[in-house]
């Protein structure tokens, strides 16, 4: 199964002693199911600062993997209550980051659904910030969103 979808993303980044940064984005994407796993993919935009980057979110049971390919290449693995090390490549060099997932909800069907991830980022074992992703996926009803 593969279909065009509308993806609504709300990202909240919280750093100590600063107001949270909130980014909201609605974009066209693709939802693919192979067996019991779902893959969601979309092109980043200028709004996210990652223009020219393809983001893929793979939902496989209790694990969600976010991969970005482009000028900023990264892979982050999310599992509630678990910490994963990830590499984050930027034009300025690569760095290892820790991803500690506090809460994970991934409820996708062939018609769409929701993904919510609350996680902390660590750089050199020091807490660098806390992020929350709220993603809503719905079927594209023939609107004008294009990829």
Q: Quote the CATH topology.
A: Lipocalin
Terminal-residue CA separation = 19 Å
Give the quaternary arrangement of the chains: single chain
In the predicted model, the low-confidence regions spanning at least 5 consecutive residues are none
> Any idea what the CATH architecture is?
Beta Barrel
Rounded to an integer, what's the Rg over CA atoms?
A: 15 Å
Please identify the structural class as seen in this structure. Answer: mainly beta
Task: Tell me, rounded to a whole number, the average pLDDT.
Answer: 89
| Fraction in beta strands | over 45%
Output the helix-strand order. EEEEEEEEEE
> What's the overall geometry?
globular
So what's the CATH class? Mainly Beta
Please give the largest β-sheet: 10 strands, antiparallel, barrel
CATH superfamily: Calycin beta-barrel core domain
| Structural domain tally | 1
Strand order of the largest sheet: 1-2-3-4-5-6-7-8-9-10
Number of strands: 10
Number of helices: 0
Helical content class? under 10%
Short description:
Helices cover 0% and strands 71% of the residues. The chain is mainly beta and 147 residues long.
What features would you describe in this structure?
Strands 1-2-3-4-5-6-7-8-9-10 form a 10-stranded antiparallel barrel. It has a single domain, classed as Lipocalin (Beta Barrel). By secondary structure, it is mainly beta. The protein has no helices and 10 strands. The model has no long low-confidence stretch (mean pLDDT 89). The chain is globular, with a radius of gyration of 15 Å.
């Amino acid at each position: 199964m593969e279909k065009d979808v509308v993806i609504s993303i709300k990202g909240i980044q919280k750093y100590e002693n600063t107001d949270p940064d909130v980014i909201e984005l609605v974009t066209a994407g693709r939802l693919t199911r192979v067996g019991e796993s779902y893959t969601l993919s979309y092109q980043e935009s200028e709004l996210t600062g990652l223009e020219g980057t393809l983001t893929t979110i793979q939902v496989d049971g209790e694990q969600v993997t976010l991969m970005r390919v482009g000028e900023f290449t990264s892979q982050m693995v999310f599992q509630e209550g678990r910490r994963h090390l990830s590499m984050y490549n930027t034009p300025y060099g690569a760095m290892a980051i820790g991803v500690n997932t506090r809460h994970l909800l991934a409820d996708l069907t062939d018609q769409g659904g929701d993904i919510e991830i609350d996680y902390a980022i660590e750089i050199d074992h020091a807490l660098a910030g806390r992020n929350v992703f709220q993603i809503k996926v719905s079927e594209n009803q023939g609107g004008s969103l294009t990829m």
